[in-house]
Every structure is written in structure tokens, then in C-alpha cells.
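Field log, afternoon session.

UNIT: design team B
ACTIVITY: writing a sequence onto a fixed backbone
BACKBONE:
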């Protein structure tokens, strides 16, 4: 072969690639941009380090000839797949191309995604899936459904081994929603992302109910009502920036430790602000986030599911440069009670941290489980048990700080010593008891109160006596349920030191295949 002939072939390769890079064509790309959306490749280049993307299966074509599909060319079969780096660390990525037949998923489209997922699992690197699709490619029938099944299977097999992140950058309907649901984190974008199993038209036909696509499956709905979304951002640039920020906290796989980031924030830094934040009045709320941001390395707290089940705060942070998972009651909302939604929110996060070697720091101020028929009928027993299960199952270092209230079964659920906490610290303000003082006094001293000449005076006297005797951390410390009662100003230092000591903790497996989590 002459050099000239080879140059012609190489030139032909370049032209062929340039044509495929156009996806659905200039008009379709312009329409995508007019809708405030990037193209599939633009998204990948925003996410990955510059010039690091290596595309795989650019030349793949569909094999269907039904319903006129054989006459159509579908560049890259509507999905861009490959690998690259984020902050120099390898990741695998797929990005559905809405400019090509609406990004619909057919047989070869699915095979491309599956190949990338298989590669990621072999290498031990995270997967980021960028979803922008009209759903199953109807023209390919059962092959499309099979494709979804193959993806779901890989999502499940990869779970707990490599981090999986879904970005909803357009419509995501029907069977398409379940791959993101099987992944670890879902990012949505205001005004762009839509997720639903059945769309507004199907809902109206089936139930007569009229609802907009935004109300049914928009970012706000999934951030506040369903809890499906973990992060909601205002635009795509902000979204991919947040994905990169999240990846910086996570190990590449379950065999690695989370990445260390040098911190200029001294671990022995005092926390004088804590004396101002928390009131000794148990009925006065405060914002637990003020405690969290001062406890962890400065500017390191990344809150997850911020607008869902707001009586519980979860997120990733760093202490001494190391990644930790934070689980905390929020007295500002529903007094920090545990309920159905917090059961789902906390347990899933705890299990994620445990899978990826991320120590857990739990901040406790919980008056109990939320009462009411809605909670009981909705299965608070089952959902509350998820937190108990998740903490008991977790083998990573677990440090618990009891700040104020810690009552009854909710005290147990928030990683008490009996659920495997490695170290339990308590502030002098801690109230560790079976129930609130009023309820306890009314039960224990009912006869004395009824027999008194002035029931109110007698009740107040007994309340003061009960609070003085039992509403402190020292009774629990006497019995070893609390390891240390600490000056609140020393909290950061005490927690950081405990994490350093317990980092090498190891617990052997129990020889079982897996437990049966209450779902």
C-alpha cells in the first residue's frame, strides 16, 4: 500500500468520524441548544479532564430493518460511550444523544452502554451515565426491553463495587428510569430533567388526572416529594461541576480507601461556636448544619438530598483531609423526629458509606419517632427498622455524638453503642432517656400526682426531680453506654482523633450470603 493510498484512507476515516460527531445533524443540534441543553459530546467534555476522553464504539450501527428503520442512519446509535479522567482519576461514561432519534434505546445502543459498564467493573472505576432519552426504541420491540434488562443487571452487579452516578439531562421515562434508580446518586437540572414511569398523557388516560410533566416528574418534585433526586442544580454547567465535586470524595471502588485531600484546617481546632448554637432549653430548635460545618474541615460539607426529609441531614465531608459520612437529626424540622422518609434517606446513605469504606459520624438530637396514623399506616415500623439494620450491618468506623435529646427507640436507631458504635461521645446537655420527662413523670408518678392537693405543683416538682436525676449523660456513662462526656468545644478534636484510631478497624464477615433488609 502506497503512502498516498494510506493517507486517503486516513483522510476518509477523519471525514467519517466528523460526520458521526454531528449526531442528528446541525439542525437537531441547534434545536438542542435552543432548549438550553448541551449535546451528548459537549456534556462529556465539560465533565472530563481536557483532552482525556477516548470514545468507544463510535461506528456501531443498529441492525433493525422494521418500520422503516433500515433506511435510517443513526450515528453512534444515539449514545456516546467511552472513558477518560476527572481530576486525573479514571472514569467511564455514557451520554445519550437526543439529536439521534430522541436518544431512544435499542439493541446496539444498550450493548454500547453494557460494554462500558463491564469495562468499568473490570477496571474498578466509577460510571457516570448521562440520560437524555425518549425511552425504548419502539421499532426494535423486545430487543429494546432486553437492552434495559441487561443494563439493570449490570447496575445491580456493580452496586457496592464501583460508584454509579446518573445525570438526568432531559426526559427519562418508562423503563429508562430504573437504571438511574439502581445507581448510587441521581443529579437533576431545573427546567430540563424529567423522570416518570408513566407520563402525563398516560396518567390522564388511566386515572383522569391532569398533571404537567414538570409537576409529575420535574427536579423540584423529585427533590422534595419522592426523594428520587439527590442533587438539583440550576443548569448543566453547575450540574457537572457538582458531579466532579462528589467524585472527589469517593474511592474508585470498594477495595480502595476514599481519596485524601490536604487540609489547612487543624484537627485540634476548638469549636466555641457550639456553646452559642445549642440551647439548654430542650424545646428551642437550632440548625444542626451550623454544628456540622464547624465540626468538619472548612468548606468541605457536601449535603445530599437537601430538600427531602429535612428532619434528617446527610452528606459527605472531610475531617483531617479524610472523607466521612455525616448523619444528623435536624431540630429545625419536625423537631428532628424520625419518620418514614428519614428511614429511607438515612439507611441508604449509611449503606453506601459502608460499601465504600467511608466512616460514619452521627450527631444525635432526636425526641423520638414521629407519631400519627399516617406514619403507622405508612409503615413507620418497617421504614424505621431500615436505620437500625443499616447501622448494625455497617462495619466502617462509627462515631456518635449525642448533643441533646436521645429518647427511646430513636436513641437506639441513631447509632448507639448497642448498634455497634465504636465510640459514643456526649455533651453535658445530652438527655438520654426512655421517653420525654413529661410522659415519664405522668406514667411513673401518676398516683402521687392524682393524690396531691395541687396536681400542677406536684407534677412540676416531680418533673424537676426527674430531669435532675435522669436528664443528663452521666447515668448512661455510669453503665458504659456513653464512653466520654466532653466539652462541646472539643468535639472536632475528639471526633477526629477517634476516626484516626478506628481507621484500621476490621470486622470479619458472618459467612452468610446477605441479610434481608426491611424494605
Amino acid at each position: 500500500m502506497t503512502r498516498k493510498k494510506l493517507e486517503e484512507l486516513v483522510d476518509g476515516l477523519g471525514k467519517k468520524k466528523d460526520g458521526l460527531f454531528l449526531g442528528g445533524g446541525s439542525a437537531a443540534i441547534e434545536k438542542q441548544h435552543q432548549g438550553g441543553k448541551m449535546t451528548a459530546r459537549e456534556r462529556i467534555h465539560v465533565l472530563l479532564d481536557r483532552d482525556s476522553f477516548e470514545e468507544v464504539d463510535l461506528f456501531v450501527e443498529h441492525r433493525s430493518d422494521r418500520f422503516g428503520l433500515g433506511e435510517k442512519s443513526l450515528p453512534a446509535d444515539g449514545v456516546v460511550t467511552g472513558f477518560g479522567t476527572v481530576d486525573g482519576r479514571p472514569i467511564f461514561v455514557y451520554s445519550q444523544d437526543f439529536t439521534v432519534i430522541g436518544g431512544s434505546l435499542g439493541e446496539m445502543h444498550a450493548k454500547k452502554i453494557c460494554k462500558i459498564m463491564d469495562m468499568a467493573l473490570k477496571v474498578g472505576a466509577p460510571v457516570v451515565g448521562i440520560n437524555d432519552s425518549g425511552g425504548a426504541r419502539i421499532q426494535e420491540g423486545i430487543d429494546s426491553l432486553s437492552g434495559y434488562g441487561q443494563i439493570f443487571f449490570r447496575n445491580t452487579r456493580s452496586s457496592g463495587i464501583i460508584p454509579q452516578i446518573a445525570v438526568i439531562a432531559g426526559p427519562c421515562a418508562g423503563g429508562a428510569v430504573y437504571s438511574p434508580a439502581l445507581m448510587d446518586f441521581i443529579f437533576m437540572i431545573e427546567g430540563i430533567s424529567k423522570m416518570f414511569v408513566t407520563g402525563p398523557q398516560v396518567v390522564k388516560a388511566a386515572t383522569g388526572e391532569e398533571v404537567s410533566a414538570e409537576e409529575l416528574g420535574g427536579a423540584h418534585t423529585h427533590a422534595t416529594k419522592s426523594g428520587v433526586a439527590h442533587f438539583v442544580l440550576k443548569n448543566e454547567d453547575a450540574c457537572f461541576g457538582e458531579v466532579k465535586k462528589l467524585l472527589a470524595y469517593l474511592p474508585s471502588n470498594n477495595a480502595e480507601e476514599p481519596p485524601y485531600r490536604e487540609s489547612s484546617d487543624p484537627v485540634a481546632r476548638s469549636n466555641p461556636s457550639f456553646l452559642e448554637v445549642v440551647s439548654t432549653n430542650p424545646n428551642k430548635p437550632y440548625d444542626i448544619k451550623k454544628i456540622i460545618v464547624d465540626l468538619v474541615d472548612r468548606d468541605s460539607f457536601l449535603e445530599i438530598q437537601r430538600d427531602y426529609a429535612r428532619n434528617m441531614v446527610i452528606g459527605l465531608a472531610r475531617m483531617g483531609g479524610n472523607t466521612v459520612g455525616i448523619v444528623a437529626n435536624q431540630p429545625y424540622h419536625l423537631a428532628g423526629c424520625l419518620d418514614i422518609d428519614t428511614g429511607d434517606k438515612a439507611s441508604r446513605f449509611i449503606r453506601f458509606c459502608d460499601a465504600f469504606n467511608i466512616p460514619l459520624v452521627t450527631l444525635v438530637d432526636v425526641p423520638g419517632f414521629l407519631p400519627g396514623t399516617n406514619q403507622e399506616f405508612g409503615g413507620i415500623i418497617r421504614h424505621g427498622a431500615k436505620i437500625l439494620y443499616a447501622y448494625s450491618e455497617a462495619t466502617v468506623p462509627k462515631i456518635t455524638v449525642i448533643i441533646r435529646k436521645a429518647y427511646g427507640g430513636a436513641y437506639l436507631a441513631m447509632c448507639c453503642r448497642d448498634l455497634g458504635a465504636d465510640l459514643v461521645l456526649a455533651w453535658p446537655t445530652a438527655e438520654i432517656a426512655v421517653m420525654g420527662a413529661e410522659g415519664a413523670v405522668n406514667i411513673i408518678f401518676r398516683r402521687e400526682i392524682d393524690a396531691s392537693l395541687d396536681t400542677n405543683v406536684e407534677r412540676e416538682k416531680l418533673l424537676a426531680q426527674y430531669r435532675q436525676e435522669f436528664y443528663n449523660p452521666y447515668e448512661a456513662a455510669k453503665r458504659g453506654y456513653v464512653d466520654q462526656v466532653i466539652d462541646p468545644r472539643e468535639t472536632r478534636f475528639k471526633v477526629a482523633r477517634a476516626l484516626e484510631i478506628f481507621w484500621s478497624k476490621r470486622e470479619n464477615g458472618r459467612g452468610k450470603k446477605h441479610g434481608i433488609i426491611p424494605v
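LOG NOTE: The chain has three domains: 14-247, 274-430+472-502, 436-471.
NEXT ACTIVITY: expression trials, pending approval
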